[in-house]
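User: Continuing from earlier, I have the next pair ready.

Assistant: Great, send them over.

User: Here they are, in order.

Assistant: Folding the first of the pair now:
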Amino acid sequence: MTVRPEKDQYYLDIARVVATRSTCLKVLIGAIIVKEDQIIATGYVGAPRKTKSSLEHGFCLRKKLNIPSGQQYELCRSVHAEQNAIINAARAGVSLLGGNMYIYGQTKDTGEVINAFPCFICKKMIINAGLNRIITSVKDNDKGYMSFTVDEWIKEWQEIDIIDDRYKYGQ
């Protein structure tokens, strides 16, 4: 008999497949947005439409410039998966209010699952987009994922500074 995955695992598995379209040379990250049990947008790490990706260039610009992971995102050719999912929803005229985002990440070289916590820029976009819950892949967890509410992030940022986030991109 086939084991039916719970909803969070099901949607995270779909985000994993979306991640396979990533054009980053270091990580594969995919995001999907679900509202009322329907996928309304997807996004993966990739260069802006109609521009050349790191894959096509054959090198990572950030690596060439010796930029440490998690710093100076503006010098990356790629748009983050979370950003692309939000942008794709906007292009389709779809409201994200009350939706949930599922983010899956893994290393490109070994395929090891990573903690796919959003960066500060993505986190701010997620808050302002009106999303409700964020479910991310994590490497050291029995379930293989963690769930956060956007309200928790807002409350945390009301009490501490953004830089003191407990769950940071790149951790």
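And the other member of the pair:
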Amino acid sequence: MKGIFGSFRVKLIASLFLVVLVILTSIYFVINRTTESEFKDYVIKGNTNQMKGIEGNLVEYYEKNQTWDGVGTLFQDQVSDQLRGNRRGVGTGAGGSQNVALVGLDRNVIAAYDQAIVGEKVPPGAVGQGIHLEVGGERIGTVLAGPLLHGELDQAEQQFLDTVNRTILISGAIGLGIALILGGVLFRQLTQPLNKLTTATEKISSGDLDHRVTIESYDELGELGESFNQMTENLQASENIRRRMISDIAHELRTPLTVLSGEIEAIREGIYEPTDAKLEEIQEDLNLLNRLIEDLRELSLAEAGELQLNKGRTNLSELVRRAVDRLQEIAGEEGIELRGETPENFPALNLDADRILQVLNNLIKNAIRHTNEGGEVVIEARDRSADVLVSVVDDGEGIPPEKAKHVFDRFYRADSARSGDGGSGLGLSIAKELVEAHGGEIWIDSEVGAGTTARFTLPKSE
């Protein structure tokens, strides 16, 4: 039982059943009351119209006596004659359907074919269906015939009303059944994609990231299916990145560790002497390990949004000059011209000077690394309305489009032949995270044979 009522489809159908049932029940009672009231008014009006023959005698009686006192006998005789002429039977009960009465302006019965109802008050709605008696343009009373007080109808009239009510009930039941059938079909179309999503979610949670859900619709459920598939693709891509990153980290750590282990082992076996030069080589390998570990730490902090930025008002032109001065020697050793082109009156920005200097160093080193001897690297900065645009331009070999979109990935190197150049493969990834931490953007424009331009923005409002 719990499993049945735990089904989402059953809950939807049960909700539809209750809603339709409430609506149909409300409609039934409204129609029933309206039909009964209107039908009774119709019966009263129809029966009353048969009493038009007594109208003149009653008006004449009132004009002569200026009162209705003593009109009872006359009224009964007039009604009897009229009914015999119409060949209609007369109900004798207090609510008889053929009861005829003379009603005053206060809706009290003055005279009636059935004396038992004299003095009773008729409903206000019934008065409007009667024959209004007037003298000198003023109403003096109303003649009514039919179910006046308790609303009882004669057998034929009640059978008609019962038939109408029964028809309404049958129509409502049929409508309820059709609504449930159509609702079941509709809810099946609604819950089938949800069942697919549930199955897909279970498979994804069990590790099957290759599974995709197929929802052939163009509504919100179709959009949900597309979003689910996109989420799964992102999860799969993240998992692949995680595995590749672990493999890359292991590879990057293995190389200097293997070299260190070999050199230390060679010294222990007496192959190498522990000279200052050899110890300096070992120290360089240790420094490489330290840089790699520090880069990984900074990258993980930046991606987690936990990297602390010590912001302050900073002159960007001064940062560019410091970066150029710091790397001028390295560029000279490679036979590359390095220069900065920034205006002197550059606006001060609110940023972490050390982190932006780190971004410039990483971008400039990457540009030098991919520029041939005799080339040049230029750092430009331009003031714009909402931000500042910094460009690091080189005239190196350029990067193919299929590789350019991956340059900010961890451990990615566009040229695998340069994998032993001392870089950790994390410089551009760190630069990207640091720029975005400042609220800016970073991207690469490159053309094979025409060089590469790394650009990033820094907002003035930060």
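Worth noting for the second one:
The two ends are 60 Å apart (CA to CA). Residues 368 and 430 are 18 Å apart (CA to CA).
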